[in-house]
Amino acid sequence: MDSMEDNPDIREAVHDAFLAGDLSFLMHDTQLAMRDMVEQGGDEILIFSSRQLGKSFFDICLAIEHCIKHNRPMVRIFADTLEQVNDIVADNISLIEQLAPPGFITRRKSDKRWMVGNGEIRLGPLAQAHIDGKRGGNATLIILEEGCFVSSDEYKAAIGSVIGPQLLRSGGKLLHVTTPSKDLQHYVHTTVLPKCEATGSVARYTIYDNPQLTQEQIDKAKSRCTSNEEWLREYMAEIIRDDTTTAIPEFDETRHVVEREKPSHAYWLVSLDFGGTVDKHGLVLCYYDFEIAKFRVWDERLLNRNTSTKVIRETSIDMEKQAKWLDEEPNRVSDSPGQITIDLRCEDFFVRPPKKGKGSWEADQNALRLAFTRDEIEIEPRCKWLIATLKYGQFTDSRKDWKRTEELGHLDLLAALMYGYRARDLNNPFPRHMGKSIHTHHISREEQESADTLQNVFFTHLK
Question: What's residue 425's pLDDT?
């Protein structure tokens, strides 16, 4: 600001940047990376951020840029309470306002709103007791500040009843910017994260991504944490998985998500879990890789509940085209009601039921956990929903069932993985003599004599 007062050229350049909707000169590199994520991501973006990274200042810069760049823009910023969101915005926007052209940013105090260029920024609370008063209207960008510090139920209700409808007609974006919650079952963890992860719209920034802090300051922040869990959550932006509630705690994305070429010989298998009218339908295309002794998942499909049997059948057939079937017919195992199995067979879609017995659900799950512990299972990176299921799938409180979530369903892809793993074919898929036979493959006398000569030379050299 001192430079702007002393140098008219600098003042003019800053004002031109505001008019162009480019506040990059106010943001550090990590904040610019966050802006890129919002611009390139889908219609819903999740950013997990360390404390003191400057996420609130980033939110305001993003909101101002949006108001300038878009036609008839409306930005809404929500936090736990109206007082909290007002403090967050007021503290940060007052600094930016002093740099902007005169009258470019103006506040209407009574309405908790700012006019920016041709656009508007409005504030709102996430707390259920107050958010109903914010029903109606539209928005082109909605920013949710520190949503993980709002109760999971209130957060879910706010998005479903107020926030979501405001984006319907505008086709705008919903941005979650928060530090992870202490509650592992928080709506952000169980629903928002898997959804955004499947579309590549998740980013995580730690305290080490903050260019404004020195190593000494970072060390001091760590020393003040009361536990390692607090350090990982608040400053490393990590979700602390609980081994007692996570369905497959042994799954490690860095070890078990591996990209490989399609094998030349393998016994492929399609495993299906039918959800019917209540749950989703999970399908996985998998095989046992005999050469490396690993069970591998090549592709997946996760279909919404009430999907017709015809669509499920067509989806599976389409996915099966990727496999190199050694037998004439695809091999399928399916957990489906008897009548659906009969209906599928009438459509030349043959499936066999998974092996089930007393205690099989727990035993099959334990077998998977051991397989992941031994690094005997690999998953192709394209299987986004299965990866999310393995990372975030949880037990119910009784540990007798899996928790249902909007995005992962009843962990239907995990069920399909269990059935497929149990039904895997461990036999050697490579044919004897690689399929060659004396009846179909001819070796001339000259080739045989040449081979014998080379063999004799080799053994003579060894002697």
Answer: 93
Distance in angstroms (rounded) separating the CA atoms of residues 117 and 192: 32
Q: Is residue 208 domain-shared with residue 287, that is, in the same domain? A: no
- Number of Cβ within 10 Å of residue 348's Cβ equals 9
Please check whether residues 28 and 159 belong to one and the same domain: yes
Kindly give the parts of the chain with pLDDT less than 70.
110, 128-136, 357, 433-463
Residue 246 lies in a domain: no
What ranges in 394-444 are assigned the alpha helix state H? 412-422
Residues spanned by the domain of 405? 253-422
CATH code of residue 317: 3.30.420.280
Residue from 139, 196, 150, 202 nearest 173 by CA: 139
Residues whose CB is less than 8 angstroms from the CB of residue 205 and which lie 6 or more positions away in sequence, other chains included:
30, 33, 34, 47, 48, 49, 50, 53, 237
Exposure on the CB side of residue 266, measured as CA atoms within 13 A: 25
**CB atoms < 10 A from the CB of 137, how many?**
11
35 and 151: one domain? yes
| Listed residue (280, 272, 282, 277) closest to 336, CA to CA | 272
Q: Alpha carbon 363 to chain centroid distance?
A: 28
Measured at the CA of 276, the angle between CA 361 and CA 399, to 5 degrees, comes to: 30
**Amino acid type, 390:** L
Contacts for 169 with CB less than 8 Å, ≥ 6 apart? 138
pLDDT tens-digit map of 66-82: 999 988 899 999 998 88
